[in-house]
Amino acid sequence: MHNPIKRILVMFILLHIVTVLSGCGDQRFLPSVFEQNIFCQHEWTRSTCLAPKTCTRCGATEGKIRSHEWGSTACNAPEGCIVCGTTEGMELTHTWREDARVCIYCGLDERPADDRFLDRLAEGLEAKWKVAAPLELDKKAEPTAEQMEQIVRAEYDLLAEFEQETFTDEALGELAHKYVRSIADTLEAIEVYGTEEWVDRYENGAYHRYTMALFGIHSMHPITVSEENQPKLEELLQHGEVIDMAYMLIDQVFFLDVSTSDALKKYETTIENTTSLTFTWFLFKIELTDEEGNLVEVKESKVYNWTPGQKVRFNFTTTKEFHSMDVTVANWELPLEN
Ligand SMILES: [Zn+2]
Ligand SMILES: [Zn+2]
Ligand SMILES: [Zn+2]
User: Fold this and answer.
1) What is the DSSP letter of 309?
2) How far is the CA of 70 from the centre of ligand 1 (A)?
3) How confident is the model at residue 48, as a pLDDT?
4) Ligand 3 center from residue 101 Cα (angstroms)
5) Pairwise CA distance, residues 122 & 235, whole Å
6) Which ligand places an atom closest to the C-alpha of 44?
7) What is the 49 CA–ligand 1 centroid distance (Å)?
8) For a disulfide at 288, which of 170, 224, 245, 296, Cβ 3.0-4.6 Å?
9) 19 CA to middle of ligand 1, Å?
């Protein structure tokens, strides 16, 4: 009934197929289709970030690769992945100061802009004075434009980032932005360093805004600098206070037409010296512009020996036709202290 030879042949073929399919010998000649071989008694390695679970016998893989296994993530000595060595994507662990989110190792500062700015402000001043110090020894020499740029940049580089930052305290933010912008304006004005325009743009412009902002910030949060630089800070703050008072006088300016003839126009405004300062002289600069905003004429109005509480009349005359006037710069001189 049965043909023994035929049965042996069938068994032989089956054995052969099993042997080939199991493939637990040499892997090199196995087509990829056999990689998920159900006949192999897989011996799995554990999955790592480099490879998924893999059979050491047939090379079959299963599942996905694992995420990295981080060693120490401390920011001062990060180990990275203990398998592949990468530090990419690793989240560092910081050691915060007791009083604030500032890392004692790497200095990462996660405090609000307000606190970071106030620290940086003092650092910026110190940096500026440090660059300026060797030049100040030589009192005769005015700094060159290049030296001036180095001085201004030393402070600006530390503060530039705060120009865009949002502060928790809006009032402080406004002063901080004003302060940083005044330094940026100074840097830009260096292109006209030593000229009349420099006096306008820096000495009677950016410097005023700089010291006023500094004075305002200091009034809210007293600034601390090194002892040796304390006199320099005080000088800046004094200027700021005086400039602040002087600028407030501009708010009172309201020039009225008091002309008695059409040819020569006369304008007047009465202002009370609401400051605690006696001005040797005080000057308003008035820019007259036409309807398109083009400058028609620049006038000055000046008074002398203006004492606290004293009301004085500022006036100017013009023969020009104009559309509007802007009081742009106030300048003054204080008596030299004895
Ligand atoms: Zn296997
Ligand atoms: Zn890894
Ligand atoms: Zn850190």
Assistant:
1) T
2) 29
3) 94
4) 10
5) 15
6) 1
7) 21
8) 296
9) 13
Domain extent listing, the chain: 4-62, 67-111, 113-249, 251-333
| Encoded amino acid at 166, one letter | T
For residue 124, pLDDT beyond 60: yes
Beta strand 61-62 with 256-257 is unpaired
Alpha carbons within 13 A on the beta-carbon side of 293 = 0
How many A from CA of 42 to the centre of ligand 1? 4
Indicate the pTM of the whole model: 0.70
pLDDT of residue 23: 46
Tokens standing for 44? Answer: 């799995």
Least confident of 27-36, 54-63, 201-210, 221-230: 27-36
Average pLDDT over residues 290-318: 95
- Ligand nearest to C-alpha 65: 2
Which ligand places an atom closest to the C-alpha of 58? 1
What pLDDT band is residue 204 in, cutting at 50, 70 and 90?
Answer: confident
Q: How far, in Å, from the CA of 137 to the mean position of ligand 2? A: 58
Closest-lying ligand to the alpha carbon of 56?
Answer: 1
**Least trusted range by pLDDT, from 4-8, 14-18, 64-68, 133-137:** 14-18
Q: Which of 114, 75, 77, 112 is nearest to 96 (CA)?
A: 75
Q: Which residues surround ligand 2, an ion (CB under 5 A)?
A: 49, 68, 81, 83-84
CATH of 251-333, one of 2.60.40.10, 3.30.470.20, 2.30.30.240, 2.60.40.200: 2.60.40.10
Q: What is the pLDDT of residue 337?
A: 64
Which ligand approaches the C-alpha of residue 43 most closely? 1
- The whole-number pLDDT of residue 335 equals 86
Q: Quote the pLDDT of residue 33.
A: 45
The rounded mean pLDDT for the chain is 88
Q: How do strand 324-333 and strand 53-54 relate by DSSP bridges?
A: unpaired
Q: Name the percent of the chain in helix, strand, coil, to the closest 5.
A: 40, 20, 40
Which ligand is the nearest neighbour of the Cα of 60? 1
